[in-house]
Write a structure and sequence with these properties.
By secondary structure, this protein is of the alpha+beta class. The protein folds into three domains: 9-172 and 344-374 and 498-507, ATPase, nucleotide binding domain (Nucleotidyltransferase, domain 5); 213-286, Actin, Chain A, domain 4 (Alpha-Beta Complex), CATH 3.90.640; 381-491, Substrate Binding Domain Of DNAk, Chain A, domain 1, CATH 2.60.34.10. The protein has helices spanning 56-60, 93-112, 128-140, 151-163, 213-232, 240-259, 280-286, 288-304, 325-335, 348-364, 496-507; strands at 9-12, 17-23, 29-32, 41-42, 44-48, 51-54, 69-71, 117-122, 144-150, 172-183, 188-197, 199-208, 262-269, 272-279, 314-318, 372-374, 381-386, 393-399, 407-414, 423-429, 439-446, 458-465, 471-476, 483-486. Strands 1, 2, 3, 4, 8 and 9 form a six-stranded mixed β-sheet that branches. Strands 15-10-11-12-16 form a five-stranded mixed β-sheet. Strands 18-17-20-21 form a four-stranded antiparallel β-sheet, with no helix packed on it. Helix 2 (93-112) packs across helix 3 (128-140) and helix 4 crosses helix 10 (348-364). The protein is globular. The two termini are 30 Å apart.
């Protein structure tokens, strides 16, 4: 695989750490170190009055200036504002993510020169709103986001490259099925993939956007805080700086417990201090329910793919949190196979994104594709309609979850009254037949309907769902010439004008065309 003239760059925008990779002259992915010389960059932002600091120094500030630090902003993607207020101001989470991406862009440019085209990864279980927010963050950071790729898929591509599957000589003749178990700092995904020659085909995917190593850290924090309360009758979590310092101590202890059977955590608050020892077994017992959640999701995903463990050749570990022995032991017991840790847990996702970027750039230069990716959607997509009998809001599913992408789907609805002037199409994600139990991702309006339209006139809603999980909507009125490519209005999305302003402010780059 040769490298295109434009640098092929992939970004793993993580909850706790982010990584940038590029393809070298021989088409091999390699990680780019940041300005501090580290291969991973903490996804943490410090608002220091008029200065915004990203990375290691921002992470250190959790122990002294916690009220000025934004951490785990990826978990807030899809919401209107980040959960914390900084000096009286709230920021959209995608703006905080844009500062992180800008740091990655500037540091990488010091090594490979200026670049704008990137592929950014997202959890497979991210919904359409969060995917759009990630794309917006890339735009505000000065990027042209070529594609959004699911993290487990990116890891599978990196694995395929490592195994020599990405060229015709090394491609596998027999389909090979792997299960990618991706437990990162803040999100969890599991995807069953089939490698057919040089094609990477997702068969089923599931996950949890609010489950990751951060939750294991928090359990340790709670264990230590409860021990401190029993000794000194005060809670060290009351003070943001003490809580931030304790969290960092517990994060270190978690890593120690992956290598040793016990670790100790120091804590000081209000003149009291203590050092508490915790064993690996205690840690496992305190987090068993978190592990069980990943186990259940893994079993459900395998079932959704229509496979048994005997059909799975490898269980591929991705994400730094898979280093915990409890994770590997559980997967070995569940699958009967030794989990495969052959790809770099922290870097494989960025490597796969860089390989995807190389593929897209090569195609734009007229060169043939060396491999292909086929994904599935992680959530069912539907339109809100009224039940003709009960008049209750119902979810009319157009695209069921785990449908291969891209896909086009159509469903016919009916107007509710005679001479109706407009139609409101409300788009939801979720599996429940009740619209109220689903997540509304946006809506689009069709105005100026033809006059004297009878009640119960048919209205066709057409969805086009792209491989990167982005949605286009088209509304047609059968028997008329009305064909409307509807623009989805997302309640929590920033306008183009706002994004242009943030793009200038964050990275000093002028606006461009953006969809």
């Amino acid at each position: 695989m040769t490298t295109p003239a434009v640098p092929a760059v992939g970004v793993d925008l993580g909850t706790t750490f982010s990584v940038v990779a590029r393809l070298d002259q021989q088409g091999r992915p390699s990680t780019l170190a940041n300005a501090e010389g580290d291969r991973v960059t903490p996804s943490v932002v410090l608002f220091d009055r008029d200065v915004v600091v990203v990375g290691k120094e921002a992470l250190k500030a959790l122990a002294t200036e916690a009220e000025h630090v934004a951490e785990c902003s990826k978990r807030d993607m899809g919401y209107r504002v980040f959960r914390k207020v900084f000096e009286g101001r709230q920021y959209p989470p995608e703006v905080i993510e844009a500062w992180i991406l800008n740091k990655l862009r500037c540091d990488a440019a010091q090594q490979i020169g200026p670049f704008t085209k990137v592929v950014v990864t997202v959890p497979a279980y991210f919904d359409e709103v969060r995917r759009k927010a990630t794309q917006d963050a890339g735009y505000m950071a000065g990027f042209e986001v070529l594609d959004i790729i699911n993290e487990p898929t990116a890891a599978a591509v990196a694995f395929g490259f490592q195994q020599g599957f990405l060229d015709q000589k090394g491609s596998t003749s027999e389909p090979r099925r792997i299960l990618v178990y991706d437990l990162g700092g803040g999100t969890f995904d599991v995807t069953v993939m089939e490698i057919r020659g040089t094609q990477f085909v997702a068969l089923a995917t599931d996950g949890d956007v609010r489950l990751g190593g951060y939750d294991w850290d928090q359990r340790l924090v709670d264990l230590m805080a409860e021990s401190f309360i029993r000794q000194h009758y005060v809670d060290p979590r009351e003070d943001p700086n003490t809580a931030g310092k304790l969290w960092r101590e517990c994060e270190d202890a978690k890593r120690t417990l992956s290598a040793r059977s016990k670790a100790s955590v120091a804590c000081g608050y209000r003149g009291y201090s203590s050092r508490v020892e915790v064993s690996r077994q205690q840690f496992k017992e305190a987090t068993q329910d978190l592990l069980d959640r990943t186990r259940f999701t893994t079993e459900q995903t395998l079932k959704a793919a229509g496979l048994d463990w005997a059909d799975i050749e490898r269980v591929l570990l991705v994400g730094g949190s898979t280093r915990m022995p409890m994770v590997r032991d559980m997967l070995k017991q569940l699958s009967g196979k030794q989990p495969d840790a052959s790809v770099a847990a922290d870097e494989a996702v960025a490597h796969g994104a860089a390989l995807r970027a190389g593929l897209l750039l090569a195609e734009s230069e007229g060169r043939p594709a060396t491999f292909a990716i086929k994904n599935v959607n992680s959530h069912s997509l539907g339109v809100v309609g009224a039940d003709p009998l009960t008049k209750r809001r119902r979810n009319g599913i157009l695209i069921p979850r785990n449908t291969p992408l891209p896909v086009t789907a159509k469903r016919t609805f009916k107007t509710q009254k005679a001479d109706q002037k407009s139609i409101l199409v409300q788009i939801v994600e979720g599996e429940s037949p009740s619209a109220d139990d689903c997540t509304q991702i946006g809506q689009c309006s069709v105005r100026d309907l033809p006059p004297n339209l009878p009640a119960q006139s048919p209205v066709d809603v057409l969805f086009r769902y792209e491989p990167n999980g982005r949605l286009q909507v088209k509304v047609t009125l059968p028997g008329t010439n009305r064909h409307i490519k509807a623009e989805i209005v997302r309640e929590n999305s920033l306008s183009k004008e706002h994004m242009d302003g943030w793009r200038r402010y964050i990275c000093g780059i002028e606006p461009t065309e953006y969809r």
